[in-house]
Write a structure and sequence with these properties.
The structure is a homodimer. Chain A is α+β, with helices and mostly antiparallel strands. Helices cover 18% and strands 47% of the residues of chain A. The radius of gyration of chain A is 18 Å and the shape is elongated. Chain A starts with a strand and ends with a helix. The interface between A and B is large, with 69 and 69 residues.
Amino acid sequence: MSETRLSTEKVFSGRLIGVRVDTVRTDSGREATREVVEHPGAVAILPVTDDGKLILVRQFRYAIGREILEVPAGTREPGEADEVTAVRELREEVGVEADTVELLARYFISPGWCNEQIAVFRATGLREVGSQLDQDEVIELVTISVDDLPALIASGDIADAKTITAILLHVRS
Amino acid sequence: MSETRLSTEKVFSGRLIGVRVDTVRTDSGREATREVVEHPGAVAILPVTDDGKLILVRQFRYAIGREILEVPAGTREPGEADEVTAVRELREEVGVEADTVELLARYFISPGWCNEQIAVFRATGLREVGSQLDQDEVIELVTISVDDLPALIASGDIADAKTITAILLHVRS
């Protein structure tokens, strides 16, 4: 299975994302249009304390118009290895360094129309070093237990793919 | 925590997505730019056979340039209830009807820049009725076991958020 690009048009180039509209020929020989959002990728890191608690961040998300509780995360910097981004976000947002950082999974967020890939890590052996938030970042740290997950999903406090995935993968591995 | 919209500019209106660039005032009083992708939302449905196997679909995804194995899913139709979309996708892509359809979770795919929300269902008590694919859809049905998940993630065959989330939530509930 594949699709051949016949033409491409860049319709938006932003600071974070780009958008193109491609015309393709499908396997069945038909012409079709594909809207594609280009994203540099993201990294998330789940900090697990020595007593097994999880540290999440509560922040306002403009795109969805409310606050949610998320695993710490950031956009990948050009040329930066995922693990380096993860460690940096951990220090900046949570104010900790970690003895061990492990990859839990790497996956696409919505492969039907977007190339954003996210790498999800777990951090253990945490040491406090003090957070270094960007001037524009307003976040609150919240410590939860793994057992809180169903109730926090039901209440809508936890409401995004990377956070649910990170916690469920952590529990299984 | 909140951000106040000062201005908004629609920069793209496609068949599937729209993109706007908003200027906001943050809690700390600064002006900032927010790129927002508007998406109608999606529905995924995990079909579980009577012997506990999972039915996935293998299809080519142009945005990421390769085939992956995914839980059956589709874009929400305007005004259609999630569960109705789920049942329709199940019939069209997998060719089955289900005795029971349960919501596993509803979450945002990437709340930092996109309002796409996905509702993930589980279908049990399956009865074959014959698939009804759109002319443009080329998919292959693949039946897996829950225990195959780690190997399929490691191999990159399973590589998207909704599929990983659906299977992990199914295992836990």
